[in-house]
Please model this.
Amino acid sequence: MGCDGRVSGLLRRNLQPTLTYWSVFFSFGLCIAFLGPTLLDLRCQTHSSLPQISWVFFSQQLCLLLGSALGGVFKRTLAQSLWALFTSSLAISLVFAIIPFCRDVKVLASVMALAGLAMGCIDTVANMQLVRVYQKDSAIFLQVLHFFVGFGALLSPLIADPFLSEANCLPANGTANATSGSHLFHASRVLGQHHTEAWRWSNHSLSRLPAQDRAGTRVSYAFWIMALINLPVPMAVLFLLSKERLLACCPQRRPLLLSADELALETQPPEKEDTSSLPPKFQPHPGHEDLFGCWQRKNFKGAPYSFFAIHITAALVLFMTDGMTGEYSAFVYSYAVEKPLSVGHKVAGYLPSLFWGFITLGRLISIPISSKVKPATMVFVNVVGVVVTFLVLLVFSYNVVFLFVGTASLGLFLSSTFPSMLAYTEDILQYKGCATTVLVTGAGIGEMVLQMLVGSIFQAQGSYSFLVCGVIFGCLAFTFYVLLLFFHRMHSGLSSVPTQDKALGMESPECYQR
Model:
């Protein structure tokens, strides 16, 4: 009861900063999911092929990783952190406003690189500030923080859906009919040996279309709406800066007095600081540093090879699962509107929202489930569920209902894979390795690489390859997970102190949710 009262007192005292940090993660989610449903319109707007537009995803994900590292620079003081959040959230609104004017894919990739830097900075700074405020009580607040990612990712496709183009990019003539009503990016594959000529003709034809007929004109309103919806977020950060007297025009504020109840709670004898209650990403262990500094630690000398094998295989599992999350969200809309399904553009626009909605739901329901189920078991169920779902989608590839059901199923299975894998791997290594750093890096690289790979294969082999890639990636994830179990057993035999009880993940597993 005293713990609940202390947490409630902390929340009352830090309500505005907490709401502000939650809101900036809404910006993060808003920016992470809009590319999927707007992909075809952006391709028509930039006159680009699918492999070319895939570089937009790559630039965003690469700069997200760079932004995460850059965000650590601003963690030293509250003023630096808040100004970084203000700049990043404002940059996201500017990105949404500028996207409709990007008529070249290179310009669009550059703009999305800026968005990636802002998202990475938000990811690092907001997490660190919440942990700094609530410390060992931060788990529940971090859960809500990452819930806002899913909420923003759910909302952005819904905003874009009414403005998606139902018409072809190509003018209605004989050559366009040869593509059987498919979109511009599909023309080069259908025409085969006339790829170069068809591509030049398509660009020339598009340039002669009147402005109101060009794809991307109506979707511009969706981006401007998202820019306006996001605009209160930097204003909230600016207001917090003002309240904390961190603006140049405001003098340094004096500390506020506590109420009698809060003072009583604050002056209670503090419990021994238990850093194990913090998420692994924020545990103050010397092993949890940057990627290069982590592996330079001298005490790794003499470690068994199973120690390094666990890091690598766990990272490869998340390379596949997080990569599947990125590529499915990015290309499920393009797959749905292509043959054989030929789903209407507006109906297909709900698929990314459905996917992210069930990811958000899965993150919520996995909290009570993880208190009763081992992390290893959860990862096994998730990976097998992903493989089975993709196989069902492949068998019933002509059924639209199965596509929607399968999209929801994938969202549920992929939602808790990262936190469960992180908890499982950290427990195996007794928090002595670089698991957090390596796993986060592997997951981020997977999102970059698999989106690029699927975009190229989709262009060359057709829409059916989208599901085939999913099955292959799922089977690879399962294979790497089996290898992880093998190295776990081997590592346990080499360890001098058995850690079987800890490996069950029964200690505050909700703290490990991403």
User: Anything to note?
Assistant: Confidence is low (pLDDT under 50) at residues 170-216, 254-290, 496-514. Residues 318 and 443 are 5 Å apart (CA to CA).
